[in-house]
Amino acid sequence: MSVFHDVSSARGLPPIRLAVVAFFLTAAALLSPAQAMDIKRVVSPGGIEAWLVEDHKVPVLALEWVFDGAGGTDPKGKEGLANIASTMLDEGAGPYDSQTFQARLQDKAIALGFESGRDGFSGSMRTLADNRDEALELTRLALTEPHFAPEALDRMRASVMASLRRDLADPNYVARRQFYATAFPDHPYGGEGRGSLESLPAITPDDLRAFVKGQFGRDRLVVAATGDISPEDLGKALDKVFGGLPAKTEAKPIPDVTMSGLGQTILLPRPTAQTVMLMGQPGVKRDDPDWYAATVMNYVLGGGGFGSRLMEEVREKRGLSYGVYSYLIPMDHTALVMAGGSTVNAKAGQALDIMRQEWARMAKDGLTDQEMADAKTYLTGSFPLQLGSTQAIARILLQVKRDNLGIDYLNQRDRYINAVSQEDIKRVARRLLDPAKLLTVLVGKPEGVTPTRTIEGGS
């Protein structure tokens, strides 16, 4: 699953209430930095475990959770089921129809949202402490008694289908879609999580009910919380929200997968002024011992904005692109190291060559001592800025717990980064970066490029 992605929804918050929440979330930036964070392991009376950062200075509670693997394998012909479910859980539940449910969230300034991903189905709840009981009850109802009314399903389905149609005209989306379809054919990672214009009409309310019953189980539940709540009260809250879920589920597991398409250059011609470039090859998972060295390496290669090599060589020296970048994508069953950007069609071949040259230079030479020092300074110094709100802390805490990094990880992270050596960088760069193995997808009318495959009218 994606690391630290936002799974919340502020839909329905009125301006005054939103301002109140924003004030408290800004104030939460004064929370202790990561190196001093006290994380408590909480086990509810019913046996549900969560990690908690308790903080009573600000009257806000953030609760984050994920059902590992849930939604990763939609039934054939019903692709997009998990995503539709994520849009439907707050569209009426228990005794409340959609309008009433949304009104109760709005009146109490409760933010409740859900998101389906490649590796799990996530949820997020934020509330002022005074409204905690109401927020917990609405969350419980959404998870255990959703309505899935036909009218709401038709409305949400139409919205998703409209977004898919819009994206088909976006070269960046087309490039991503083709990359994953090529890299992971016949695997859930290769599909479109929102489904297709053909599969979405087949989804019924009964499909959604079966999804919730079969995917939301306490055996795959991971929870984190931050804010104004004691461990004892959090234990009670966990049982209230999640205690009614099945103890175990029989959902089909997602298999591990090896990336396909290595060395291919795929062109999808489009009548656009610029060419979108996307390339990648196998990377490192989050629990790989080389993760920290890969993180430092990637910061210098293309993850450091204007200070990165790709930006320096492609944009600053030659003006070939407004932006070019690289990044790591750790997933549960595979991992990628990727790079991308866009350039005018006439310069596409030149830009692509330079990106591949930088890929090879990093693999051959590694980093300079100054690049290493600057990367470590940034990666350690900027991390506390990610802990700038109650929700941000809860979200990161959830990911740390889910990735089995250890309850003391946030206190140890800087040490792991600073321990990376030049030998580590050289080993990892040689392991990960081979321009001959890059899967490259181009969307546009690039000049100076010889594709191995051209897909006319494809997406």
TrEMBL record:
Coiled-coil region list: none
Question: Where is each Peptidase M16 C-terminal domain found?
Answer: 203-378
Which Pfam families does the annotation name? Peptidase_M16_C
Q: InterPro entries recorded for this chain?
A: Metalloenz_LuxS/M16 (IPR011249), MPP/UQCRC_Complex (IPR050361), Peptidase_M16_C (IPR007863)
Top-level taxon: Bacteria
Gene3D superfamilies from the UniProt entry: Metalloenzyme, LuxS/M16 peptidase-like (3.30.830.10)
SUPFAM superfamilies according to UniProt: LuxS/MPP-like metallohydrolase
The protein in question is named: Insulinase family protein
**Originating organism:** Azospirillum melinis
Its taxonomic path starts at: Bacteria, Pseudomonadati, Pseudomonadota, Alphaproteobacteria, Rhodospirillales
